Amino acid sequence: QVQLEESGGGLAQAGGSLRLSCRTSGIMFRNYNMGWYRQGPGKQREAVATISSGGTTSTVNSVKGRFTISRDNAKNMVYLQMNSLKPEDTAVYYCNARFAPLPVREYWGQGTQVTVSS
Q1: What are phi and psi of 85, to 5 degrees?
Q2: Please, what sign has the CA dihedral across residues 88, 118, 63, 37?
């Protein structure tokens, strides 16, 4: 059974930091592209940061220079270090695992709330 479990969310003040963690099980983690997505109030879910199975990273422009995604293949975990948080970063953050070769396999965590106060 595939499980993705996020942790590390909570309340932070603007300018503060949080580190999200996603523990995975039931997948060959090193073969999966991993990502963090978020959905703010009244907004569509958006990709925040991704890291390929080979370690190539990408971040959305709104978090560049503030958020860093990383992975630990030995621990089957992916992280999102969030610095210089802004109120507009408030959202539910989801961990995503995607195996691109056909057939595509994709899994989601249940989400963790991040709230940034001004």
Answers
A1: -60, 145
A2: negative
Q: Which residues pair with 47 in a beta bridge?
A: 37
Separation in Å, CA 32 to CA 57, 93, 106: 13, 19, 9
Q: Is the peptide bond before 103 cis (omega within 30 degrees of 0)?
A: yes
Taking all residues of the chain, what is their mean pLDDT, rounded to a whole number?
Answer: 97
Residues 100, 106: Cα–Cα separation, whole Å: 8
pLDDT surpassing 90 at residue 86: yes
Q: Is 53's pLDDT higher than 90?
A: yes
Q: How confident is the model at residue 91 (pLDDT cuts 50, 70, 90)?
A: very high
- For residue 96, what are its two tokens? 């995503």
- Work out the number of other CB atoms within 10 angstroms of the CB of residue 34: 25
